[in-house]
Amino acid sequence: MSAPTFPSGSVLGYPRIGPRRELKKAVESFWAGKITADELEATASALRVAAAQRLVDLGLEASSGAVPGSFSYYDQVLDVVALLGAVPSRFASLTDEKGALDLAGYFTVARGAGEDAPLEMTKWFDTNYHYLVPEISESTPFRFADDRVVRQFVEAKDAGVVTRPVVVGPVTFLALSKAADDSAPGFSPLSRLADVLPVYVELLRALAAAGAPWVQLDEPVLVSDSIDVPAAEVRAAITEAYRVLATELAVGTERPAILVGAPFGGLVASGEDGLDGLALLAATDVEAISLDLVRGAVPTGPVAGLEGKTVVAGVIDGHNVWRADLAAKLALVDQLSGLGAGAVTVGTSTSLLHVPHDVEAEDWTNGSIDARLRDWLAFADQKVGEVAILARALTEGRDAVADQIEASRAAVASRAVASGVVVPAVRERAAALTEGDFSRGDYAERAAAQQAKLNLPPLPTTTIGSFPQTPEIRRARALNVKGELSDADYTAAMQDEIRRVVELQEQIGLDVLVHGEPERNDMVQYFAENLDGFAVTANGWVQSYGSRCVRPPILWGDVTRPAPITVDWSTFTASLTEKPVKGMLTGPVTILAWSFVRDDQPLGDTANQVGLALRDEIADLEAAGIGIIQVDEPALRELLPLRKDDQAAYLDWSVSSFRLATAGVEAETQIHTHLCYSEFGEVIGAIDGLDADVTSVEAARSRMEIVPELAEAGYARGIGPGVYDIHSPRVPSTEEVTELLELAVKSIDSRLVWVNPDCGLKTRRYEETVASLENLVSATNAVRAQLG
């Protein structure tokens, strides 16, 4: 049986949280016991069907597999854990006799329960999306435990839309997994590929039986040479996986046609041991290959094996929100004619999971967002529309969409010349920077001056910055935004909360206090609202992990700071206590990483503009008497390019922008930074290069994994490895925290060690926060006693 024709236009995925975060609200209601599992399933089903129909209404074909079936209750990698029944042994009691998890068990694996820690969480390639890291050992069972993918296909089909199920591919799943604690030394999860493939075979057979014409298997591991698995092993695994899944199964009768997605970079690599993913996939019997032509270049010359295959040109940016110049995108598609592919169609570079739902969900009439941006932006729905226009251009000719192509060109041109995009004073200040603007004095001298001023005990205790945002805080902020609570009354309410947080920290016994950030809705959005060059949406929600959603600001112009942002809050807090208080800022790299950033100049130039604005803020904090200033950079590792050849340039400008922001202070002012939820081993040199006096890092879920790496690298400044995992509702016991802290001081000079949670406490409840921090202080006192 011949393979079905791939649709002329498609997208690799679609937001799954719902236009108004309906899934988030339903999931959290289920967690709170307010709705049943059946009610959650019903809400999710309605959202899936509505999303499928919406994509058809926007111009995708309803019957060809153009519509992706990319739903997840929590995480697409966790979905494969459930599919395979690959549940860690500590959660084995949650599975039935077939190895399947019910919804409650699924969420427990994600979030933990009691003494059972959840799966580790880290960033999905170079995005701000977090995935759960599978734990695989030699004895992990694999079986076709969960047929949700099949049931969701049937659900959409019954509603009149033939979707294309989307599943993380087997090689990427195993390559991103970690060896379980009970594994033998040197064990590689990828060595279990032969045991995983039969489950994928069962899945493909079930989808074929249900009538699925296409399935999408995502293998982004092919665009990165920065993972721990050697390129040769990845090559061998891809060849074997798609021999079993494509060559050995008859398309149409035993399996759907296979599209392999490879987002986040180019498939063609450079270097002696470069992983040429396009040639590798072309040599298999898969029917279609998607190329990310936003992050990756157009391959040159014909590629053997592409004859008869479809190449999906991912020319519409799934990672950013700017409207495309459709004529330029068609020119890119034209360049693929020399590859020798059987057909070329159009699509997105990545899943649209990474952008908000709809530009039209914003109120463009009330002045809350610059109305000029409406014509410059494309969110998920607009991007689907762009794909549909390009598809029509391929099938009907460009004259059929000439008006839409011209409208896109005009929009892009108007943005380029708009006021505020270029601010001459900003450009002149950046051009005048010298080497001295990026460096501080000797660390040993700084450390001595800081200790003389601060007089901190061994193993100083602190938190990362935020405290729980209560319903009362959120209600006050919402009323203030609506104009129903005056600015003065809002400020008074936030000051009352700060008083409470300060008193609480003093009662618990923390050494360095924070104000709790009640006035901040989000650590990036808050600064975007107070800097020129940014716009902030009301409904531009994007999933970060699980039910956690954020509204990334839109950085569209040159950045300036009209007035101090945090000084009043910090000085008010300092007036309430004799203990040191940290001023809290978000760093330039993280502001860029967690915003949708302009694409018309190098990222390093934009980072320096943000760095200069923060430098001014830090100077004002220091002048106001704030002796500790934390500049958070949790996204430093996140933006690291997936190709090693590109990493040095990134690390140069990212580290430089942080140093630009922080290098203007006196020696006695202590600069902190914070990094979380990434694999930091690859950027230890950059962490050192930041030259912060104290760096706090996520370490609880990984059980201090980074500490020996820091010791081996000779890191010799203050370090706060997190001892409390705040992304789980668990309260770590005193014994658990003590054990982690003991691991830290075994590897790092105890005089350098700080004690803190993994991250801010904004998303936690007060009852678990207080108990956890009390245990943190108790554990610190116990380890201090051991130190003598």
Describe this structure in words.
This protein is α/β, with parallel strands linked by helices. The chain is 39% helix and 12% strand. The strands form six sheets. The chain has a seven-stranded parallel sheet. Strands 16-18-19-20-21 form a five-stranded parallel sheet. α1 (22-31) packs antiparallel against α2. The longest helix has 22 residues, at 487-508. The radius of gyration is 26 Å and the shape is globular. The model has no long low-confidence stretch (mean pLDDT 94).
Question: Residue-averaged pLDDT, rounded?
Answer: 94
* Order of strands in the sheet with most strands: 1-5-7-8-9-10-11
**Beta content:** 5-15%
Head-to-tail CA distance between termini: 76 Å
Radius of gyration: 26 Å
Q: How many beta-strand runs? A: 21
Helix content: 25-40%
The secondary-structure class comes to alpha/beta
User: What's the total helix number?
Assistant: 25
Largest sheet: 7 strands, parallel
Outline, from the CA principal axes? globular
Given as residue ranges, the uncertain stretches (5+ residues, pLDDT < 50) are none
Give the key terms.
788 residues, alpha/beta, 7-stranded parallel sheet, 21 strands
Layout: helices, strands, pairs:
Layout: H1 22-31, H2 37-57, E1 67-69, H3 76-84, H4 103-111, E2 121-123, E3 130-132, E4 135-136, H5 148-158, E5 163-168, H6 170-175, E6 178-179, H7 193-210, E7 214-218, H8 231-247, E8 257-262, H9 277-282, E9 288-292, E10 310-316, H10 326-335, E11 343-348, H11 380-396, H12 402-416, H13 424-431, H14 443-454, H15 471-482, H16 487-508, H17 525-528, E12 532-535, E13 542-545, E14 548-550, E15 554-560, H18 567-574, E16 582-586, H19 588-593, E17 596-597, H20 603-623, E18 628-632, H21 647-662, E19 670-675, H22 684-689, E20 694-697, H23 706-712, E21 718-721, H24 734-747, H25 766-787
Parallel strand pairs: 1-5, 4-6, 5-7, 7-8, 8-9, 9-10, 10-11, 15-17, 16-18, 18-19, 19-20, 20-21
Antiparallel strand pairs: 2-3, 12-15, 13-14
Helix pairs in contact: 1-2, 5-7, 7-8, 15-16, 20-21, 24-25
